[in-house]
Automatic annotation (TrEMBL):
Pfam families: MULE, SWIM. Keywords: Metal-binding, Nucleus, Zinc, Zinc-finger. Residues 444-480 form the SWIM-type domain. GO terms for cellular component: nucleus. InterPro entries: FHY3/FAR1, MULE_transposase_dom, Znf_PMZ, Znf_SWIM. This is Protein FAR1-RELATED SEQUENCE. The lineage of its organism: Eukaryota, Viridiplantae, Streptophyta, Embryophyta, Tracheophyta. Its main location: nucleus. Belongs to the FHY3/FAR1 family. One of its GO terms (molecular function) is zinc ion binding. It comes from the Eukaryota.
């Protein structure tokens, strides 16, 4: 269509080509035209409210359609809603990231020698050169004095969890955690990742190690992720890397949902195959049987996780320390340190407050466990000198776990099968088969050198958890070893785990039992018995 203005001031259509025209958009489709798509003020307010509550664009659009009486009356599409929400997040993120930076900068100013933080591309918070405005694109890491001290005592094994994304911006919040001497989760540092590239993880791991004075862990547990795996191999080449078995099980329920639904017994068979096999040969045979039974030989995802089984199936990992008391139960270190404090609507501004509340709660639980250990007496279940010794050395929770193993020795038989002579003709190492009475077909092999007081079991519980298993304890019982050898008392599990820096996590020094602190604790426990007896005697005297 061509139009022109005449001398009279009127407009005149001078040309019209019908073929170039098109039908007008029907009223119920007008909202699809870019020129007509606008988000009104009231709609923006409603979107903001629902977004803050953690709802996604699809659910928000459903609510808007219901509110306005149809999609044509909303006035915009789901794509427009998604774009608006993304811009919202970016604006909020930039503001909240600045608040987080301000918080970290203030924490460092208050504790310049102990609080560590760093932003990728902008150095670490160790001086007064951090007054510039921060970019929202940089990954952030920090560790306070408590986290760094915790790592000094309990940094032998570490869990790095990137699956915790419950915050408003869906940013991976990645805490480094471990297990303390009470079996409780402890924090070794935190990070917010703006992206999950290999370079980001490499930077984060190197920064974390710098904050921890360069000391590498014995083992590290992460999610099953190839990018993280590559970064771990680069930064921690000598650290044993394990994929979290429980994360893999959760993925399995998603990837093999049809199998779980069709075969109710599949979950139990999978659990038995992974957790209850005692040797590599037994696991591999059980896995092949499982795959054949449920016709899963062509499942690509199952083949993928089997190819990495050496990094998540317990039977391949038992020779490495992971500070776990049970293979079949989930460790507390796998549970987020911040569960119950952060949810899908948490902003970074709110996170700062909840972070401090979580730290306060965890610290209080540790104080309570310390108090219970030092000021109450456990119930002994046997007359064994070893049990009494352990009750005076271990924290309460660890002692209770050791006590379970010790009591179970009463159901075991230890039979001598081999003896190895030394150079002088004396027997040095003896091999025992240990089995439960009536279950002789399922036995464990224990080698015991009586001269060096060294024992090893095929179950590898001591190597994996740092506590002696019932099988070794059964051999000690039949060979009249009445107290725990000092080499099998891991300091990190004892009452005195924090009495000094742990230079060697896998054994106590020979002078440990003679230390002033241990003598003090032993005498204190003995004194409590006399106090209780004295109180009872007084009661009987006053009220005969």
């Amino acid at each position: 269509m061509s139009v022109k203005i005449q001398h009279s001031g009127k407009w005149l259509v001078s040309g019209f080509v019908k073929e170039h025209n098109h039908d007008l958009v029907p009223p119920d489709q007008v909202h699809c035209l870019r020129s007509h798509r606008q988000i009104s003020g009231p709609a923006k307010t409603l979107i903001d409210t629902l977004q803050a509550a953690g709802m996604g664009p699809r659910r928000i659009m459903s609510a808007l359609i219901k509110e306005y009486g149809g999609i044509s009356k909303v006035g915009f599409t789901e794509v427009d809603c998604r774009n608006y929400m993304r811009n919202n997040r970016q604006r909020s993120l930039e503001g909240d990231v600045q608040i987080l930076h301000d918080y970290l900068r203030q924490m460092h100013a208050d504790n310049p020698s102990s609080f560590f933080y760093a932003v990728q591309g902008q150095g670490q918070g160790q001086g007064d050169d951090h007054d510039e405005q921060y970019s929202s694109t940089g990954n952030i890491f920090w560790a306070d004095a408590k986290a760094r001290t915790n790592y000094t005592y309990f940094g032998d094994t570490v869990t790095f969890d990137t699956t915790y994304r419950s915050n408003r911006y869906r940013l991976p919040f990645a805490p480094f955690t471990g297990i303390n001497h009470h079996g409780q989760p402890v924090l070794f540092g935190c990070a917010f990742l703006m992206n999950e590239s290999q370079s980001s993880f490499v930077w984060l791991f190197k920064t974390w190690i710098t904050a921890m004075s360069g000391r590498l862990p014995v083992s590290i547990t992460t999610d099953h992720d190839s990018v993280i795996q590559s970064a771990v191999m680069q930064v921690f080449p000598d650290t044993r890397h394990r994929f979290c078995k429980w994360h893999i099980f959760n993925k399995c329920q998603d990837q093999l949902a049809h199998v779980f639904l069709q075969y109710p017994g599949f979950e139990a068979d999978l659990h038995k195959c992974v957790n209850l096999t005692d040797s590599i040969d037994e696991f591999e045979a059980c896995w092949l049987s499982l795959v054949d039974k449920y016709q899963l030989s062509d499942d690509e995802w199952l083949q993928e996780i089997y190819s990495s089984c050496r990094q998540w199936v317990p039977v391949y990992l038992r020779d490495t320390f992971f500070a776990e008391m049970s293979i079949t139960q989930r460790s507390d270190s796998m549970n987020s340190y911040f569960d119950g404090y952060i949810n899908a609507s948490t902003t970074l501004n709110q996170f700062v407050k909840m972070y401090e509340k979580a730290l306060e709660s965890r610290n209080e639980k540790e104080v309570k466990a310390d108090y219970d250990t030092m000021n109450t007496l456990p119930l002994l279940r046997t007359p064994s000198p070893m049990e009494k010794q352990a009750s005076q050395l271990y924290t309460r929770k660890i002692f209770m776990r050791f006590q379970e193993e010790l009591v179970e020795t009463l159901t075991l038989m230890a039979s001598k099968t081999e003896a190895e002579d030394g150079d002088d003709g004396d027997v040095t190492t003896t091999t025992y088969q240990v089995a439960k009475f009536g279950e002789e077909n399922k036995s464990y092999r224990v080698n015991f050198n009586v001269l060096e007081m060294k024992a090893s079991c095929s179950c590898c519980m001591f190597e994996f958890s740092g506590l002696l298993c019932r099988h070794v304890l059964a051999v000690f019982r039949v060979t009249n070893v009445l107290t725990l050898p000092s080499s099998y008392i891991l300091k990190r599990w004892t009452i005195n785990a924090k009495s000094s820096v742990i230079l060697e996590e896998h054994a106590l020094f020979s002078s440990y039992l003679e230390s002033h602190t241990v003598r003090y604790n032993t005498l204190k426990h003995e004194a409590l018995k006399f106090v209780e007896e004295g109180a009872d005697l007084l009661i009987h005297t006053m009220w005969p």
